[in-house]
Design brief:
The chain is α+β, with helices and mostly antiparallel strands. The protein contains 6 helices and 7 strands; from the N terminus they run ααβαββαββαββα. It folds into 2 domains: 64 residues, Helix Hairpins; 149 residues, Heat Shock Protein 90. Helices cover 50% and strands 17% of the residues. Strand 6 and strand 7 form a beta hairpin. It comes from Candidatus Aeolococcus gillhamiae.
Amino acid sequence: MRFTADAAHELRSPITAIQTVAEVALGQPRQQSEYRRSLETVLRSSHRLIRLTDALLLLASEDAGALTVSGDPVDLSDLVEEALDRWRKRAADGGVQLNGPSAPSAGLVSGDEVLLGRLLDNLLENAIRHAGASGTVRLDLDGSVSDGWTIVVTDTGPGFDPSFRPRAFERFTRAEKHRSRDGGGAGLGLPLCAAIASAHGGSVNIDPTVTGARLRVWLPATTQSAVVQHRQSA
């Protein structure tokens, strides 16, 4: 019941914004520039609404035991480079320096490329938002663990208070006192990452840090022979 109420509240905010802007814009004749600003607000609210509904649908699939992955071979190094390319402009626009490995090692896992890309997007969006102007975000891929690959995202923002960490992966939970809510999300980013990682047999954890924040995703590795076998059976 609480989940339904929280979901309804989060969905209501962008819907209300769209309705209010439309009513004001239609209230009286305006300059073209004013209409453009109104449409930009509607577009931003629409994007937020789409992200919310996508997140809720994915989490509903997890609750129903229907969140499954295709099991295709996926090279995490390619996904890391693509994610860095997608978010560099957004980071630069906010005054954030986004760094990554110059040549990440091939990290083969078995899973769903779209879902794993979404996991990376959520981690980077969250880190960039909280790093703030003049902050730094870094995305790394570590294959030193023999049975899997680790994705590490660090930021120089205010970090997570130790008291918040046990609740960090609860839905609609925000660290309001420690992580800025300005332009923030709905408190679904980390639960979404955890759901995607779990569907791949992995996990997400928040590392203790003195400053900033560091999130660590572990995913089980697959072998080159498994990739060859998959391609032969396709």
